Amino acid sequence: MVNTKYTLLIGSFARGTGDLNSDIDMLRIGHTMSVMKPANINQHLPLSYVDYDLNSFFKLYDAGSLFLYHAFFEGRLLDGDSDQWNKLRENFVVSDNFIAPINEYLEVLEYIDSYPGYELSFVPYLSNIFKCLKNIGIFQLASRKQYDFEKMVALEAGCGLTSTDAHTLILANAVYERSMPISLQLMTEFEKSANEWNRRLNGQIARLANDI
Q1: pTM greater than 0.90 (yes/no)
Q2: Could you write out the three-class secondary structure of 65-82?
Q3: Which pLDDT score is estimated for 167?
Q4: 2-29 burial, b for 16+ CB within 10 Å, e for fewer?
Q5: Which of 55, 89, 59, 84 is nearest to 71 (CA)?
Q6: Which of 91, 108, 135 is the last residue of a domain?
Q7: How many separate domains does the chain show?
Q8: Which domain does 72 fall in, by range?
Q9: For 175-182, which contacts have Cβ atoms below 8 Å and span 24 or more sequence positions?
Q10: What are all long-range contacts of 200-204, with beta carbons under 8 Å and residues at least 24 apart?
Q11: Which of 8, 33, 118, 141 gives the lowest tally of CB atoms within 10 Å of its CB?
């Protein structure tokens, strides 16, 4: 399998739930060649790559990576030997222990919570909270054998957030990642949310740690 190469569409567009706040996520295995955006997806949306050489891919494969579970069972193979890919998928066994990655993201949240004045940078503050909570939520759900990679589901069902809180975090992350212009009204909303998270983040961390 020395010359094996795969290209997959992953993420929300692979699931059919992508929108204007979504990136077009591509997984490249064994190569780093440019990939054309699928014709049925808005061509103005940014293209985001995740790259693995074959050694890294098989290390993740042997470890039962939850990310590879997503790639195998939600991803769309765009290029590569489909028979070979299907055999890999059939023999893949996902891990059932996600304590280590959950703890890693909790440690990042603890750093965010302890950093003086971090919440005054409203948008990056909320974006970083979003990224940690989204991943914690995905791992929490997977530990219950619920393999769902949707952002809203991870935040609500995995972390216990309200739909309003989840939506605000998702929106703040989209604004931050794309350097989008922000209206005064939206900035006020982000400021209010950041101040609320500054008061409650420590308690959220404790609850999530208790759920492990």
Answers
A1: yes
A2: CHHHHHHHHHCEEEECCH
A3: 97
A4: eeeebbbbbbbbbbeebeebbbbbbbbb
A5: 89
A6: 91
A7: 2
A8: 6-91
A9: 175/123, 175/127, 176/123, 176/124, 176/126, 176/127, 177/23, 177/127, 178/46, 182/123
A10: 201/109, 201/112, 201/113, 201/129, 202/113, 204/109, 204/133, 204/159
A11: 33
Q: Of 55, 74, 91, which residue constitutes the final position of a domain? A: 91
Segment 108-155, tens digit of pLDDT:
999 999 998 887 899 999 999 999 999 999 999 999 999 999 999 999
Confidence of residue 2 (pLDDT cuts 50, 70, 90): low
| Side chain identity at residue 116, one-letter code | P
Structural tokens at position 136: 């914690």
Same domain, 119 and 197: yes
Sign of the alpha-carbon dihedral angle for 40, 15, 23, 121? positive
Q: Convert the pLDDT of each residue in 55-96 to its tens digit.
A: 999 999 999 999 999 999 999 999 999 999 999 999 999 999
